[in-house]
Structures
1.
Amino acid sequence: MLVLILCLVCLFFLRDTAGLASTRVVLLDGADFVYRFSAAPRDVWASMRDHSQSRAELLEENRRLQQENLVLRGKTLQLAAFTAEISRYRALLRSSQLVGHEVMVAEIISVTSDPTRHLLILDKGADDSVQIGQPLLGAKGLMGQIVEVGTHSSRALLISDQTHAVPVQINRNGVRGIAEGIGDLDRLVIRHIAATTDILVGDLLVTSGLGGRFPPGYPVAVVSSVILSAGADFAEIFAEPLAHLDRGRHVLISVASEGPAASSQAEQ
Amino acid sequence: MTNSAHALWVVMFSLLAALVLHTLPLPFDWRWYRPELPLLVLFYWVLALPHRVGIFSAAMTGFAVDLLEGNLLGGLALGAVASTLIILFTYQRVRQFSLLQQSAIMGALVALALLLESWSQQLMNVPAPDYKLWLAAAIAAPTWPILRKILRSLRRYFEVN
């Protein structure tokens, strides 16, 4: 009986009671230590493989990365000028300044073991000033957001999780919607879009910034199918996330920086 | 009652080992095929030592798994307690069953624990799909004979009682 009461108390109070936040952090630290422990053999194996890489392979990789770096630098050359120009227009329109964003690299320790959840465990925590709600980015697009923060680790919910939804808009024409995860790595669903709305397969969805959790403009997904059935009020729309949610060891945590956009000093 | 005389550390150790194995890194979609080891190890010890391992151990194991999986704390604990109660009421009969029957029962008990967990999640407005139960039961059943063999030899070697 006592045990049952204990279960119910935990179920109903531990998650939301603010006074128990420190208890949650301690419990999370303990849990994430177990994940680190069980991932240790894999990490040792990976570092051994790194050490045994041949010189030729390393040189080849270095050359490839240098070329890639040059291309990326070339692409960002005009970015400063564009950002300054946009800031000027926004000032003219009296809308708020763009907020600049820094990123922090985090390593994925593991994925939690419940297959119905899409939760990542990352190796950065409160000590590295990670906070709940910070967006998680991959190389190609938005991946998710931080939902729990421990001392040296944190947990991030992917956009494909069943409990996750992100406000998006179509990059082409600004039509807004909400992309919900359905527990499928390569499908998001966008509900409640009227059947007559201008939305096509191949449209890029970017974060709309509504709700204030995700900054506007990050690419999220590409519309993969639009199903219009006769008589239905809403179109059935699916989109494929751009970020490779189940690949790679590193992710970026986006941190809002203090001032307005970094290059706003370029405006005289 | 001293722990060393009954070698209860073997119970603790096997439960901890099951928890660590439960968190082994697996590719994203392979996680569906992970047997619910902590629950199965718990059920073995309840069946073997019902006077030592009971609902308190069940609740603790459930809490630990909830914590690791990041689910609502206490959901699987409720489920594990319910399944453990069933074993506690029927262990004398279950021990006499053939291996095949026992495996089926263990699969059902794992499914029951997960069912209660998903109910508790739905109660708290967290979506929880039901098909996970059937897969988990289908994987737990064939795991049971292997696990029973290993844990039984451990129990005999260390004279856990």
Note: Chain B touches chain A at residues 19-29, 31-32, 34, 55-56, 58-59, 62-63, 67-75, 77-78, 81, 120, 124, 126-129, 132 (CB under 8 Å).
2.
Amino acid sequence: MTMKSSTRQVDGVTIVDLSGRITLGEGSIVLRETVRDLLSKGQKKILLNLGEVNYIDSSGIGELVSAFTTAKNQGGELKLLNLTKKVHDLLQITKLYTVFDVKDDEAAGIKSFSK
Amino acid sequence: MSADRVSYTLDSTLETVNNAEETAGRMAAEAGFDDEEIMQISMAVREAAVNAVLHGNAYDPSKKVTLAFERTADDFVIVIRDQGKGLDASRIPDPLAPDNLMKTSGRGIFLIRSFMDVVEIHPSKTGTELRMIKHVHGNPADSKEAPQ
């Protein structure tokens, strides 16, 4: 299954609903282009909903890091929402869990962005 | 002791990466591993295939990747070879080091080592052979990494 991405706006925050696999190739490219597109349009509060992402490889992890850094360098904020156990475990063993701002409740995640 | 071995010769393409992962998952399931172990094995094979196709053979259509699975009484052994310049594993930075934590690549070998019980990397001028072992469920063998 390839990755699907859709975006919605809630209280000034862009929620990106991702589903499928973030892996080398199409999945990573979709994520990269989605985040770059949002930032270029000035949508700099980004909440990546990974609740339906069932698989991620090292390229996908690299793409999450890249998205986080790109957003930060452009004065934005990128946070993660609803990690599946697989993604959670991968971020733990790569020591990235504490680097990312991870939320498990959408409403609280939206409120956590600076006004 | 019975042993079952199967090997494949594959093109240096992204499709090979996906096929290798899928085959590994299927064979791990047939070997009796649980869901968590199947995920670990298939992901380790995916990462090894990515290294072989991208970093080893650099998508060169004249170069092949060979992938072999062997099931013994104690172990599930996977060997993947490329025809690249040879990977110097000692030069791979530690992805957990603070200076490397935010790098966008360099986690593949680390994940393979995290998921498999034994990992050996044998580089040569004609390519790299990566051999990895997952002990069969219930095997009390030590989980130690072999010297390179």
Note: The mean pLDDT of chain B is 90.
3.
Amino acid sequence: MVTQTSDTTVDAGAEKRFFIEMLTKDIELLPAIVDLVDNSVDGARGLHPDGNLAGQWVRIEFGDGTFTITDNSGGISADIARHYAFRFGRSRDFTGVKRSVGQFGVGMKRAIFKIGQAFEVRSAHRGETGANDGSRFHLNVDVEQWAAQEAWTFQFESVDEGVTIPAEEEAGTAIAVTKLHPSVEDDLKDPAIVQALRTELRLRHQESIQSGLQLHLNSENPLTASRPSLQASDMVRPVFREFQVPGPAGGTVDVKLFAGTAAPPKRDKDADPEDDGQAENFQDPGDAGWFLFCNDRLLLVADRSPLTGWGNPAAAYHPQYRSFRGFVYLSADDASLLPWNTTKTAVDRDSPVFRAVQSEMKTALVAVQAVINRAKQVRSRLEDDEKKPEILVALDEAQDQPITSLSASTQMIAPAAPPPKPKAPPTPKIQRIQYSVDKDRFDEVAIALGATSGSEVGRLTFDYFYDQEID
Amino acid sequence: MARQYEFRPAKAAQRRMIVDACRRLTAISALDQYQYVGFGGLEFIDFIEFHRGLGIPRMTSIERDTNMQHRLEFNKPYKGIRVLMGEARDQLPQVDWTIPAITWLDYTDMLTKDILRDLDYVVRSSVPGSIVIVTVNGAATFPLSSRLDNLREKLGDLIGDDLDASSMNGWGPAQVERNVLQATAHSVSRDAHGRPFRQLFNFHYADDAKMLTWGGIITSTNLDRTIDACRFDDLDFVRTGGEAFEINVPVLTEREIAYLETQGPGKVG
């Protein structure tokens, strides 16, 4: 132990800065935000064991140098805040936490440190009904100042315990991060990053959103759920393969792979029908492509690059494939088996596990493209008054079904193309010849050929020349 | 069928050699558990050979000329042959690849990237123990001076920089094609099955144009030793490397054929 006060202060600062750096170096901004949202959603789910989340909300807002996340998910009790949520290392007398609370731990502090240099947490916790053990606290930390002080603890700005939170007051947590890191400030202004966050939250929390949770991202309108779904009916079956890939040194990764098509967007009935045919070339790709999750974390969003087989061996992306959707879920108890990079934000393309999965994605993509190509060919030779062939009925009218309802199929199944109508043989091109010759010479040739008419002599002499000189 | 053999004697001999090699697959699985996937054309010669020679019951033929469907249905020798109409790349996914397959992609054109994609798909999709064969034109029909450019145009960066026009005479372009086919199958097979593709066939033949037939077997860590037990190497036409087996069918008289037949079995010549 260092005994001199001045030395201790400096040491603590260096140690803390190093600690913060280590804590945050392996996480990217998006997963950090997603961690915070996960906490709020877990809290909301914990309040409603019946799964009905109506009335629950989580708001994420950022801009003007602040990032805030607010929820009415029940709050953090002062006790848990003191002993666990904002404590580094585990208190000796803190013997255990419920699973949902367990996720606070490192994730929350790490996410906050990742985003900015100062933060404020306000929480109201109702406690057991009638037990009078509700609590409120307010915590306000400037990380630089904290780093410079000796103690590893945070000080509550204010704390009330053993109180009853009135029924009209929402119990929940508000976290506000300020003094954002410059790179975070820039990232939060980047529309692509905001879009990726939106996509991830819609997919990740689709179930909670459908159960009534209102999840707001910089908007009064809550996010709509994005439920992975594919066209399926008694005529169409998307690919659904389930398999395991062994890890390089033992252990296995469970893989679920879904690939197929999404139902065509409903067209406005009043729209000009002329637009129908042309829309294909102009429509933006939207969600077409592959989505890949590792332990429920979204790593690839609508990927249409060679990484997922586009261009090799499958055809490169073209608007005709805009209905393609693929969803791949990799899960493993040991997260180190999963093919992600160290920051868990991107696919490690050299991982043998990924290569095995990639191979399956490639063949699935080719299979779905083949069905799309087949339908396109059938459509292109469809005549106006012709009855719509089954394959087109299937792909135009089958509804999207949640992928969780699909049954296994190694290939995409869709009706065969009807045989093309045989083409009428082309009319041969004809050249007429007419010429006059001496009558005596004609008679000699006619006798030699055994021909009786001028036209016959003409044809036989032409054929004779053709056989001898051309053929 | 003897007439076609007279038409294309080298091709016929090659077909027989490949059927002979496939007979050794019994160490892996009973032959009637295999399926045959090919481009049967109007005559289905290879289908007849594989059915008679190996007893393979399940067969799929892919035909790109969609105007021939009624003729194909008329000409197919066995009712059970499934005919898929359209480009190979669109039809191949309709094959049930969970069944071990002998797939012969018998093209008449020279090698292109589209053909490599078909190969990629088949190698990826087939289960270990499956045979994959590709026939392409030996790319020697162009003037000597433009052959290398032509290969580069078709195959791009897959063609190494160390080649020059002097390596383009005779079977030179076919050797390049074989290297590209093997390299593709090698890496695809490693991705999909964890082990490189094991080449068995590298035939050069010329009934008319110079043709290359290359192929081999998909293996896996579990299957490698079983494939060793098939002893493909014992067949003198099997080629596992860059050196090709050139098929030259001598033109013999009836009397000579009859004499040779009295000399078997055993090695002739």
Note: The longest strand of chain B covers residues 101-110.
